[in-house]
Amino acid sequence: MKWSATICMEECLETIHSPVPEETLSPEEPEELNVNLGRRTLTIEGKLEIKGNDSYSMRSFTPKLELHEDVDLEQIRSTITEDDHFAVEASEMANLDVSGRDISIRRSTTEN
Questions:
Q1: Domains of the chain, with CATH numbers?
Q2: Which residue stretches, if any, does this entry annotate as coiled coil (predicted)?
C-alpha cells in the first residue's frame, strides 16, 4: 500500500497516512522546496514569491509530520509533476534504523 501527501499554500500539509488529492503549490523552481527526514519526522520547507504590478508578497511554510511506524522511511519520495503539483509518497514497512536524511525532489516527465 502507498500513501501520498500533497502541499498547498493554504492548508500546508495533509497527513501522509491516507491518499489525498494533489493540489497546486506552483513554486517557480524545486529549489524553493526542501524536504528533510529526521528519524520519523518529515519536514517540508517552502516559499512562494508573488509579484504583481504594484505589489509583492512572500509566503513561507514549514510543516512537520510525524510518520506512522509502518512507513518505510527508505522509500519516501517527493515529486513535482509537469503541472506543478508537489507530492510526497511513502510505502508500508518501516525501517526503524534510519536516523535521518534529505529527500531529493524529482521533476516528473511524461513519456509519449
A1: 2-98 (2.60.40.790)
A2: none
